[in-house]
Amino acid sequence: MFRTLCFCSLLLATGLVHGEIKNKGWWRNAVFYQIYPRSFMDSNNDGVGDLKGKNHFKFVVEITNNFTCYYEYGSHIPFNFKLITDVNQNSSASDFKRIIEAWMAHTPSTGSANWVLGNHDRSRTASRYPERSIQMNMLPMILPGVAVTYYGEEIGMVDKSDISWEDTQDPQACNAGKDKYRSRSRDPNRTPFQWDSNENSGFSKGNRTWLPVHDNYKGLNLENQKNTPQQSLYKMYRTLIQLRNTSRALQHGELKMKVMKFNTDYCYNCELLAISREVPGETVSLLMSFSPAIAVRVELKDVMTLYKNTYSEVDAFTPKRYSLNAGYVYVFPWEGRVISSSD
């Protein structure tokens, strides 16, 4: 098993089932959860997160009923930052398709792809893609290989951009000086994890936290997303990990991608990206709308192989899977939908 604590991050592999750990290749399709220890959980109430508390990783276990730390020498996963550096809010479906294809083309047959949407050095996904947290968090879960989640992305945490000079901790921001620190600071995406609506969002019972908690914590926190009867980003994330555990298509399936274009009076040249994983007898597809204005109708037979049983596994509105009988779905602006079909 393996654990990396390199200055600021710990990687935990989730989505495993007992028995897989003995297989040295288990990590090739795992979900890795990356934490920033100072901001994950404070167990001694000094305002700084640590790794000593007994319940630090309880919610990670709840996501999929298991997790492990992996200890083995060597660098197995050279992080792929293309989803951070080469695309942005203004990128098209064709842009995403191009960088995914390029990475897959350069991944050796003996290697495994990996997909990183955010980390401790970059602005959070929900800040870079406003209103698109669900579809963007779906993407690495459907692509082949390792999916890496930076803590807080699974509930849609955003950057805290108003951290004062007095509260700044990032060395490169401090070195830039009071007039320029904001442009160099990485503190906005390192704020304490938002556990609940209690003081300091449940991160610490101390009088002061090492970085201020985001002001939106009373509404945006893990507890709220777990307990709501409606769909939430956390519920979606948990469902996708469970789907990765059980789906042959997501574990072994061939990758297929298609860009669909829609021209209407309200949206010229709007695009939808369909990403499918297929094995004989099963297909799982992600439909990502790049339309800012209208819902688009997608004929499922045009983007995936259909079998006897077709389900909507995850969408933005419904927390439970449901059967699809019409042969088509509507994908709303900036929405992502995961569809499965099997014998």
From TrEMBL:
Keywords noted in UniProt: Signal
Keyword field contains Signal: yes
Region called Disordered, residue ranges: 166-201
One annotated GO biological process: oligosaccharide catabolic process
Coiled-coil features, chain-numbered ranges: none
One MF term in the entry's GO annotations: alpha-amylase activity
Ranges annotated as biased composition (Polar residues): 191-201
Skewed-composition ranges (Basic and acidic residues): 177-189
Residues of the Glycosyl hydrolase family 13 catalytic domain: 62-253
Keyword set includes Signal: yes
Gene3D superfamilies, alphabetized: Glycosidases
Extent of the signal sequence: 1-19
Listed name of the protein: Glycosyl hydrolase family 13 catalytic domain-containing protein
Organism name: Vespula vulgaris
